[in-house]
Amino acid sequence: MKKSIVFLVCLFTMIGYSQEVKLIPQINVSGEGKIKIAPDQVTIVAAVETKGTNAKDVKKQNDQQMEAVIKLIKSMNLPAADYKTKRVSLNPQYDYEKKKHTYNASQTIEILLKDLSKYDELMEGLVNQGINRIDNVTFQSSKLAQYQSDARKLAMKDAKMKAEDYVSVLGQKVGLATVITDNSQSYYPQPVYGAMRNMEMKADSSAPRETMAVGEIEITANVSVSFKLE
């Protein structure tokens, strides 16, 4: 008897629930927004490496070369907040064939250059003052947040346009959005990697040099949207 009562209660509950649920006509679409912009600043990660048999002398030489690099940066009137030391190391290395130690000192500095017209001057000056390794060069935009917002708006417009295209042949209209899902991937500036060891850069005073092709940055936003149909 108890089992019969429980069954009837469950049955009436399911019937009541099924009467309450109403299917809402809707359409699910995706949208994409893309913006291409020219970068207006660049981050340079560069290092001074020195080697020798005496740790103290190796470190001293490394410090002197990095001091010259920092003086160069200051002479170009870069704000103090736009450059910083990233890594400092002094490591022993043992040559098993010659059975003796050598030492490798390294200092890495990161520079944010907001005036791209100074790029060639800065890069040439860095090498002349002792930089012998360029780890990467990353072109960026100072207005990234604004452009990401613009890309998201374009993605929403694209989604709504797609929905209107689909339902136009059905004699229906696109209503309110019920669910919005951001599918955008996090934006990471793509670095240009390179290595410069024991380089000598000679300036040609007779003609300006151009060693940089910055191209464009592409910012993309992706969204999924569910719209009610009217």
UniProtKB/TrEMBL annotation:
Listed Pfam families: SIMPL (PF04402)
Domain of life from the UniProt record: Bacteria
Single biological process term from Gene Ontology: DNA damage response
PANTHER family: PERIPLASMIC IMMUNOGENIC PROTEIN (PTHR34387:SF1), SLR1258 PROTEIN (PTHR34387)
Name used for this protein in its record: Uncharacterized protein
